[in-house]
Amino acid sequence: MTSPMYTNSVPVFKQFLIALKAVLAQATAHAASKSIDPDALLQARLYPDMFPLVKQVHIAADFARGVTARLAGVDVPNYEGKEKSFADLEALLVRTLEFLDSVKSAQFEGSETKEIVLRPGTPKEKKLNGQSYMANYGLPQFLFHVTTAYNILRHNGLEIGKRDFMGAF
Asked: Looking at domain 4-166, what is its CATH homologous superfamily?
C-alpha cells in the first residue's frame, strides 16, 4: 500500500520541479535569443525586498528535499546553495529529483504523527505533527517559491503559461 503522506508530497514535488526545470531551460533559450545577459534573469526579483530567481529555485529545491527527508526519516541532503547559472540550477534540480526518486513510499509509514521540530533550540522553535508539517507548512512554502520563480520569469518576458507551470500530471 502506498502511504498517503508520500502520495501527497513526493509526486507533487517531482511534478513541479520537472516543470520548473523545463521553464528554466526555456529561460536559457530566451536569454540567448534576445541577447539578454542570463544574470539579469537569474538576479531578477518581483520586488526589491524579495529573493532573486536563483534563490527562489534554491529554496524550492531545499523544501522538496527537506520535507521528503524529514517525513521519510532520513538525513536531509545539504547542498551549499552556490548556484550562479542556469546550468547550476538545472544540476541542483537533477540532484533533488534523484534524491526524491531514492525515497520509497514505505519510509513514510506513520509519518503523519511524527513530530517535526522547526528551528530547534531557537526562540522560533515550532513543533508540528508530520501531517501539519507537510500540508500546512512544507507544501505551501515549496509552492510559494516555485510560483515566485515562475512569476519572475513571466514578468521578465518569458512566454510561459499555466501548462508550463503545472508540467505533466
From this structure: dinb family like domain (1.20.120.450)
